[in-house]
What we know:
Blueprint: E1 4-12, H1 15-31, E2 35-39, E3 53-59, H2 62-70, H3 72-84, E4 85-93
Antiparallel strand pairs: 1-3, 1-4, 2-3
Helix pairs in contact: 1-3
Amino acid sequence: MAKGYWIAHVDVRDPERYKDYVATAKPAFERYGARFLARGGTYEVMEGSGRSRNVVIEFPSMQAAIDCYNSPEYQAAKAIRVTVADADMVIIDGFEG
């Protein structure tokens, strides 16, 4: 079974409140087996436009990634995030070939 991934590009407008989002999202990530592969850090935009924060999260499956996003725990965190940050996010199926 292929893993699932969240890829998010985020501009944080309120870093202090963003910490509340991170803390609120943590139970959902733990419940669905999330593993952070990239979380902030140094980056270079090679093409297109970039955002100030880039995150890649691995899940045991595509379904786990979707279920995490749709979970009540993550939706509570998202309600905070949308007030303090602008984000682009996709959930993708891992490549097994």
